[in-house]
Every structure is written in C-alpha cells, then in structure tokens.
Write a structure and sequence with these properties.
- It contains five helices and three strands, in the order αβββαααα.
- Helix content is 45%, strand content 11%.
- The N and C termini lie far apart (39 Å).
- The chain folds into two domains: 10-48, no CATH class; 50-110.
- It has a three-stranded antiparallel β-sheet, with no helix packed on it.
- The chain is mainly α.
- Bound molecules: zinc ion (ZN).
- Zinc ion binds next to loops.
C-alpha cells in the first residue's frame, strides 16, 4: 500500500528505490541516503514542495485561477500546478485532503511514481548538460 508519505520521497537515481531516508543537508538542500544501495543524493527542493503547498495549488486551480498565477504565488512551475491539480482530485473533481492520512487509489500512486522517475531523468540529463 502506498501512503502519502512514501510518495513524497524522491526515488534513488541509481537503483530506483522509492523510500530513501533523510541524511542531512548539502548547501541547503536535503540529502538522501538510499537504504537499498547506499547511494547518497540531493534533490532540488522545488521538485519536492511540502504536500500542503501542492494541495493549496490544487485547490486554487479548482477555484478557477490559472496555473501560471498559482505557480508564481506558490513557487511551483505551471506544469507542476496542473499535475497536482489533476492527481489530487477524484473522479468528481473534489480535491483530496492530504492532512487526513488518505491513501491514493492504486493507479494514482503508480502514475505518481512514474512521473517522479521521469522528473528525475530530466533532472539528471540537465545536470550532465551543464557540467
Ligand atoms: Zn539506491
């Protein structure tokens, strides 16, 4: 069963283990330690905003604000706003309340996992380009 807390963690770039542990900070960024392969990595904070912010984004989007407006207000990209607005609403367009320890439907969890991996791949590609 995938709980909310497990999907807010990044995926290990080396072995794709999905539940690394927090392992201090490097230059203000959270460092993670993979419990599976012992790889240490940091993740851009913007990609892992607290769930409260994601929920706020989804709610503002539901209330009719544009993803650009919301993104500027909350420090998220418009794409991320749309993503969370979509993922955090049920079939009736109601926003999931993340404070309650809800479990996402299985298909949503799987989708989130593949999106996280995609973002990670982009990130790694981008980092190797600017090196
Ligand atoms: Zn790993």
């Amino acid at each position: 069963m995938n709980t909310i807390s497990s999907i807010t963690k990044p995926t290990c770039p080396r072995c794709e283990y999905t539940r690394p542990i927090r392992y201090g900070f490097v230059l203000g960024r959270q460092r993670w330690l993979c419990r599976d392969c012992a790889y240490q990595f940091t993740v851009d904070r913007l990609m892992f905003k607290p769930l409260g912010v994601k929920q706020q984004a989804a709610e503002l989007y539901e209330s009719g604000q544009s993803s650009n407006q919301i993104g500027k207000k909350l420090g998220l990209s418009p794409t991320t706003v749309l993503l969370w607005a979509r993922l955090l609403s049920d079939a009736n367009g109601r926003i999931y309340r993340l404070e309650q320890k809800l479990t996402f439907p299985k298909e949503v969890s799987l989708e989130l996992k593949s999106i996280q991996k995609e973002l990670m791949d982009y990130k790694l590609k981008f980092q190797s380009m600017i090196r």
